[in-house]
Amino acid sequence: MAAAYSGPGLLPGEGGGGSVRSYLLHRAKPHLPPWLAVGATGLAGALGNWRWGDSAAAGVGLTLASVALTGATWWAGKSTSQQRRLHSAITVAAGSAWVTAACLAGPTAGPLDDLYLMGGPVVALSWNVRMVLRHNTDPTGENGDKGLLAKVGLARAQIGEAKVEPNRVTAPVALAAGEQTNDDMTKALGNIASALDLPTSAVRYTPDPDSNRRGELVIVPEDMLAEVVEWEGPSNLGGSIADPLDVGRYDDGAPLLLWLPGDPEAGRNSTHLLIAGGTGSGKGDTALNLLTETLSRRDVVVWFSDPKAFQDFAPLRPGLDWGVEGGTDTEILVEAVKAAIPARTRWLGAHGYRQWVPEAAQTQNDPEHTCRADGRACGCAGMPFLVSWFEEAANTLRALGDDAFTGIAQEARSAGISLVVSLQRPSYDQISTSTRASLPSVIALGCDRRDEDFSLPDEVLAAGAHPGAWGNRRPGYCYVVSPGIPEDRYPSPGRTRRFTHRAVPVMELLATWAQRNAATADPVTAGAAVSVAGTAYTGRIAADGPQPTALRAVPEEDDMNHTGLLVDPEDQDIDPEADLPQAEAGDDAPIFGQDTGRKPSPEEARELFAAALEEFEQSGQMIVGPKDFTDWCDRHQLSRPWVSARLKEAAANGRLEPTNTTGRWRIVPALTAA
Predict the structure, then answer these.
(1) Domain 601-674: which CATH class?
(2) How many CB atoms lie within 10 A of CB 222?
(3) DSSP letters along 259-285, please?
(4) What is the domain class of 245-533 according to CATH?
(5) Burial class (CB in 10 A: 0-12, 13-18, 19+), 560
(6) Are 310 and 323 contacting, i.e. CB atoms less than 8 angstroms apart?
(7) What are the Cα distances from residue 503, in Å, to 78, 82, 648?
(8) What pLDDT does 480 receive?
(9) Are residues 278 and 450 in contact, defined by beta-carbon separation less than 8 angstroms?
(10) Angle at the Cα of 428 (from 418 to 285), degrees rounded to 5?
(11) Quick check: 426 and 435 in contact, CB under 8 A?
(12) Of 163, 185, 164, which is closest to residue 176 (Cα–Cα)?
């Protein structure tokens, strides 16, 4: 038996002897509606004549109805092209006029039947021809929208079939070969936004990496970010830091997600993050979104520096593994992170991890991840992910130099450490170009137009991202560039959630949860921190232990209502009504012009200097320099140059180590001194 014909264009499952018939019917279906309308018009004329053939009132009503229908068609077509509007109005006017005449005089009276037999097919064919031309395979951009691309100078560009989603339209674009490039399209985005009466940020273009004339045009007609959304709590309490961090939403309503650790299965690298935005851009709320998401995960610890004395982050401070307020403490934190990198890298390598994964944070009971030579499970304590966060980093960079974070940024990712740097203006005079190049991820909030190049890559700006258009007028609006986010999302604006006074109790509960349930620093990381910071590093304080000293000694409400005098603690037991004591021998001795004492011998001076280093170490001040010995020099009649020489001598003996900052030295704890 001969095989049944199966021509092109058949629907799935079509075949057999009816294939030709089915194929022809399938191809004819789109062209049938105009012919069905012609048939319905003839039937309406015949039935109307049977009903109203002798009624004068029906004639008046049918005439008015014909005029009204034609006018309504013209009005309804104002949003379409001029050609379609005119074609529709003429078709309706002709059809309604013939129906009116046929109802009153009869469909076969005079020339009405001939007009129907000749005019009906002509009208139907005109719509068929229009449909065929609409699917022209060589369009020039002049389509139903009056040639949007032609208006912006891209007349020969082609727009493919658009993908319509809620509040997002994505259409493939093919520019004219040999005449136009993707650069021409990116330059035209502002004009396209103007033609559509939309803001510039609502129109984006993502070039095809394999072509210089193809890409995708994305249009978001409605700004869904205008409504402020308040933070109500973390998205994944008790989850892993390897899960996405939800920090807001995009302008089409999709969640704004990012990742800090890498994922070898997904091919995603671990990343460092820059948070950049001008004053009033919502940088503080953005940081709170990210920090609350981070602290809500079970396998991460956070080392946090805030020179603003935790003005925004005080409710979360108990949940931090280590929090410092800038100055010397931040110097110590930087050095501790540097010391932790090789220690953590060595541990990960010894346990068979090429990069940090969630399994590394668990007790090592898997023989595939053991440090034992015999291949048996080692049972070592797990190593949580470490986030080293430097808020208001411009302050730290001014004190330590613009390359203070360069070593960390270049080496920490392989050690399961993410560096988060927050500052207003990431320009070359604020942060070194080497450090900036090692921060692959960025949350770019509103900024000065001149600073856009410092915040976002050139290709993202070319695709339509413009944080300079917001300035400080739209707090929380941002662009996010980070591994794991599709590249076509890079130029899509998002907005982080806002933190108000209503969020404070929830943040305090989150900090308590972190104290009780989140990870603590593993022995390797904690040991590296103690080797640098000594007693300055204590780790997270337990929820039932002594809490950090309040930032205000007197509560605000007590301060506002206080009517008495504030007394120094050493004077609080003095009775103001008691008589002064009687004079005693020696009270009249002069206190000026006396001998100031003997200058210590070189051996005594060195012993005093060693004792001073021990005092600094015991107080937790592990970074010192000549300026820290100013009062000490005055007491012992020693000069700062002498102290500088002793500092260099102590470094040679292994008691001190140099830092990145000239004239600053890190104390090596006495127990580990060389």
Answers:
(1) mainly alpha
(2) 14
(3) -SS-BTTTTBPP--EEEE--TTSSHHH
(4) alpha beta
(5) exposed
(6) yes
(7) 50, 55, 50
(8) 96
(9) no
(10) 50
(11) no
(12) 185
Q: Give per-residue pLDDT as tens, 373-401.
A: 888 999 999 999 999 999 998 888 888 88
The 3-state DSSP composition of the chain as helix, strand, coil percent (nearest 5) reads 45, 10, 45
Cβ 365 vs Cβ 377: under 8 Å: yes
Identity at 499, one-letter amino acid code:
F
Strand partners, 303: 322, 388
The CA angle 332-541-525, to the nearest 5 degrees, is 45
> Token pair for residue 139?
């369009």
The count of C-alpha atoms lying within 13 angstroms of the C-alpha of 1, restricted to the half-sphere facing its C-beta, is 5
Q: Is residue 66 left, alpha or beta, with left meaning phi > 0 and alpha meaning psi from -120 to 50? A: alpha
Alpha helical stretches, state H, 307-415: 328-350, 393-400, 406-411
594 token code pair: 């006396």
Tokens of 422: 């927050």
The whole-angstrom separation of Cα 543 and Cα 508 is 11
The pair of structure tokens assigned to 535 is 């007693």
The answer to whether 245-533 and 601-674 have equal CATH topology is no
Tell me the two tokens of residue 279. Answer: 């004053």
- Residue identified by tokens 């040679």 is 652
d(CA 406, CA 50) in angstroms, rounded, equals: 92
Q: Is 611 exposed, middle or buried (0-12, 13-18, 19+ CB in 10 A)?
A: exposed
Please determine, for residue 313, whether its predicted confidence score (pLDDT) is greater than 70: yes
The sheet carrying 665-667 orders its strands as: 623-624, 665-667, 656-658
Q: Is 302 helix (H, G, I), strand (E, B) or coil?
A: strand
**Residue 374, helix vs strand vs coil:** coil
Is residue 218 scored above 50 in pLDDT?
A: yes
Q: What is the pLDDT of residue 98?
A: 83
What residue type is assigned to position 352 of the chain? G
Tokens 């001040």, located at residue: 621
Residue matched to tokens 């062209």: 31
Span 242-254, pLDDT tens digits: 999 999 999 888 8
Tell me the per-residue pLDDT of 400-454, one tens digit each, with 9 for 90 and over. 888 888 889 999 999 999 999 999 888 888 888 888 888 999 999 999 888 888 8
Domain segments of the chain: what residues?
27-134, 148-219, 245-533, 601-674
| 416: three-class secondary structure by DSSP | coil
Q: Which two tokens stand for residue 405?
A: 């974070």
Q: Which of 448, 442, 493 is nearest to 472 (CA)?
A: 448
Provide CATH code, domain 148-219.
Answer: 3.30.70
Q: Which residue's entry shows tokens 């019917």?
A: 25
Q: What is the DSSP string of 136-165?
A: -SS--S-STTS-HHHHTT-TT-EE-PPEEE
Torsion sign across C-alpha atoms 217, 218, 221, 225: negative
Cα–Cα distance measured from residue 511 to residue 548, given in angstroms and rounded to the nearest whole number = 13
Whole-number Cα distances in Å, 259 to 238, 245, 272, 480, 556: 16, 6, 10, 11, 39
Token digits of residue 322: 């280590």
The string of pLDDT tens digits covering residues 349-374 is 999 999 999 999 999 999 999 999 88
DSSP 8-state code for residue 384: -
Q: Long-range contact list for 403-406, CB < 8 A, 24+ apart? A: 403/432, 403/434, 403/435, 403/660, 404/334, 404/660, 404/661, 405/334, 405/431, 405/435, 406/432, 406/434, 406/435, 406/438
Instruction: Please tell me the distance from the alpha carbon of residue 208 to that of residue 660, in angstroms, as a whole number.
Output: 44
DSSP string, 534-571: GGG---PPPTTSPPPPPS-SS-HHHHHH--S----GGG
